[in-house]
Design goal:
Hypothetical upf0131 protein ytfp; ChaC; two-stranded antiparallel sheet; 30% helix; alpha+beta; 5 helices; EC 4.3.2.7; glutathione specific gamma-glutamylcyclotransferase activity; 5-stranded mixed β-barrel
């Protein structure tokens, strides 16, 4: 997971020299894996989409956001992928074809790289319905080398930060809750203990921050 003044300045992401192809090896087709705001709002044209997961990575709210879900004074918290041998991250893969490829990459370079601080990485995506037919996909990952990287923090501290931040794409709390909703739709096999712990922490804190009516207005 867009319009605030001081955008975070980050180098443009460079797509890999060999882009991941679709399952039919069409050189004009590409799969793009989303695991944050892309799961509910890709905002680019695509030909197909599939829910599924990537192995070897865990999702973490370790990237700071001074544009989409926060500001320079109060950076929000958004997700990135952490290499984890035992990890599994659920999301959505979108297939783009023909002219969609260049348009999607152009759009995502601004949204994820220039404004978000993310770089590109090739991952292996396993569709929920056909996990025995994995796909190569392009993912946007924020590494510790980018200036917006915040790194680990207790889930309670992350929850406090999320409750306090808003950017031009909306409140940071909306980002958290939409991601949690997506995980519920994936079914009981989709687990994310880090995400669940932050949602639980928010649930204990929210009444202290504002009445229920105001809380609902945030999202």
């Amino acid at each position: 997971m867009k319009q605030e003044p001081a955008a975070q300045k980050s180098p443009r992401a460079s797509p890999p020299s060999s882009l991941p192809l679709s399952e039919d090896d069409d050189p004009q087709a590409l799969w793009i894996f989303g695991y944050g705001s892309l799961v509910w709002r890709p905002d680019f044209a695509y030909s197909d989409s599939r829910v599924g997961f990537v192995r070897g990575y865990s999702r973490r709210f370790w990237q700071g956001d001074t544009f989409h879900r926060g500001s320079d004074k109060m950076p929000g918290r958004v997700v990135t992928l952490l290499e984890d041998r035992e990890g599994c991250t659920w999301g959505v893969a979108y297939q783009v074809q023909g002219e969609q490829v260049s348009e999607a990459l152009k759009y995502l370079n601004v949204r994820e790289a220039v404004l978000g601080g993310y770089d590109t990485k090739e991952v292996t995506f396993y569709p929920q319905d056909t996990p025995d037919q994995p796909l190569k996909a392009l993912a946007y990952v924020a590494t510790p080398q980018n200036p917006g990287y915040l790194g680990p923090a207790p889930e309670e501290a992350i929850a406090t930060q999320i409750l306090a931040c808003r950017g031009f794409s909306g409140h940071n709390l909306e980002y958290l809750l939409r991601l949690a909703d997506f995980m519920q739709l994936c079914g009981p096999q989709a687990q994310d203990e880090h995400l669940a712990a932050i949602v639980d922490a928010v649930g204990t804190m929210l009444p202290c921050f504002c009445p229920t009516e105001q809380a609902l207005a945030l999202v």
